[in-house]
Write a structure and sequence with these properties.
By secondary structure, this protein is α/β, with parallel strands linked by helices. The chain has two domains: about 200 residues, NAD(P)-binding Rossmann-like Domain (Rossmann fold, 3-Layer(aba) Sandwich), CATH 3.40.50.720; about 120 residues, UDP-galactose 4-epimerase, domain 1 (Alpha-Beta Complex). Helices cover about 40% and strands about 15% of the residues.
C-alpha cells in the first residue's frame, strides 16, 4: 500500500487532506513546522515529524524511512496581503521550500507530487470565468511564489524525464477554502472571511463588508468559496491518479463556476446562527476585484471534482466546528 507525505499536514486544509487519505485506506505521514498548524489536528496514529521543509536532509530521511510513494505539498506561507510586507519570507517559504521538497524527492527517488497552488496566480483576470487557459498575472509575492512553484515542478519534470524516477505532477489552484469536515479541525486564520465573520457574530460584534457598490447583482464582491472537504477529496483523487500512472494536466482549477457574494455569505451566517447579522459597510479595499470565479470543468473530467456542499452547509459546518471548539475551551 502506498504511503503519501503531506507537508503542512497539521494545518487547516492539510489536516482535512490527511483525513481524506485515511478514509480511502491510504497511509500518510505528516511534516509540519507548526508555524501556523496545530499538532492536535494530526489524527492519532499518523506519523508526525516536526521540521521545516527548508531542511532538505530531514525531508529526505522522512521519505526514505516511511517508503513514501508520493508527496502532497501544502506547506508554505499563504497570506497574500502580508506577503507584500514580507516578500523575502514568502519567497523563502514558498519557493526555496518547494525547491527543497523537490530535491528531497529526487534524493529519495520519489516521483509523484500534488502541489497545492492557488488561484492567486491569475491576479485580476479580465474574464467572467477563469479557466486553466486564462493568463497568469499574479499581483502579490504570494501569488508569484505559487506560480514559480508550478514552474519548478515543470522544469524538474523536464530535467528528470529520462531518469529512473521522472517527476509526475499536477497543481491544484483554488480560491477561498471554507467550512469543516471534522469538528476537531477549524480554520484559525486571522485573515479569512469565514473566521472573521463567524467569530464576530459569536462575540456579539458586527461583521464588516468592504464595499457594496461593485458592479455585481448585490453590489458586493463575488468569489469562489469551496468546502474544505471537497478540496481534500480533489487532492486525494489527484494522488490516486498519479499512483495509477495516469497522465494529468499540469494544473486544475477547483472552482464553483458561479461563485457567491459577500452579502450572500452574511445572509447565510444569519440563517445558520440565528443571530441578527446586519454588517457594517466600509469603503472598498484597494485591489479587490468585483468578481473572480473559476470553472472546475477540467477537474471534473479528470478528477471527478464537484461541489458537494452549498453555501448554507459550508457556513453550518464551520459554525459547528467553532461552537465545539468554544465548548471545549470553556
Amino acid at each position: 500500500m502506498s504511503t503519501w507525505l503531506v507537508t503542512g499536514g497539521a494545518g487547516y486544509i492539510g489536516a482535512h487532506i490527511v483525513r481524506a487519505f485515511l478514509a480511502q485506506g491510504l497511509d500518510v505521514v505528516v511534516v509540519d513546522d507548526l508555524s501556523s498548524g496545530h499538532e492536535s489536528f494530526v489524527p492519532a496514529g499518523v506519523p508526525f515529524v516536526r521540521t521545516s521543509i527548508l531542511d532538505t536532509a530531514a525531508l529526505t530521511a522522512v521519505l526514505r524511512e516511511h517508503a513514501v510513494a508520493g508527496v502532497v505539498h501544502l506547506a508554505g506561507f499563504k497570506y497574500a496581503g502580508v506577503s507584500v510586507r514580507r516578500p523575502l519570507h514568502t519567497y523563502e517559504q514558498n519557493v526555496t521550500g518547494t525547491a527543497s521538497v523537490l530535491q528531497a524527492m529526487a534524493d529519495a527517488g520519489v516521483s509523484s507530487l500534488v502541489f497545492s497552488s492557488s488561484a492567486a496566480v491569475y491576479g485580476t483576470p479580465h474574464t467572467d470565468l477563469v479557466t486553466e487557459a486564462t493568463a497568469t498575472a499574479p499581483e502579490s509575492p504570494y501569488g508569484e511564489s505559487k506560480l514559480i512553484g508550478e514552474w519548478l515542478l515543470r522544469d524538474q519534470a523536464r530535467a528528470t524525464a529520462e531518469s529512473d524516477a521522472p517527476l509526475r505532477h499536477t497543481s491544484l489552484r483554488y480560491f477561498n477554502v471554507v467550512g469543516s469536515a471534522d469538528e476537531s479541525v477549524v480554520d484559525t486564520s486571522p485573515h479569512n472571511l469565514f473566521p472573521l465573520a463567524l467569530e464576530s457574530v459569536a462575540a456579539g460584534r458586527t461583521p464588516t463588508i468592504f464595499g457594496d457598490d461593485y458592479p455585481t447583482p448585490d453590489g458586493t464582491c463575488v468569489r469562489d468559496y469551496v468546502h474544505v472537504g471537497d478540496i481534500a477529496l480533489a487532492h486525494v483523487a489527484a494522488a490516486q491518479a498519479l499512483d495509477a500512472g495516469r497522465t494529468l494536466e499540469p494544473a486544475y482549477n477547483l472552482g464553483s463556476g458561479d461563485g457567491v457574494s459577500v452579502r450572500q455569505i452574511m445572509t447565510a451566517v444569519a440563517a445558520v446562527t440565528g443571530r441578527d447579522v446586519e454588517p457594517t459597510v466600509a469603503p472598498r479595499r484597494p485591489g479587490d476585484p468585483a468578481r473572480i470565479v473559476a470553472s472546475g470543468e477540467l477537474a471534473t473530467r479528470d478528477l471527478g471534482w464537484k461541489m458537494r456542499h452549498d453555501l448554507v452547509e459550508m457556513v453550518a459546518s464551520d459554525w459547528r466546528a467553532r461552537s465545539a471548539a468554544r465548548a471545549e475551551q470553556s
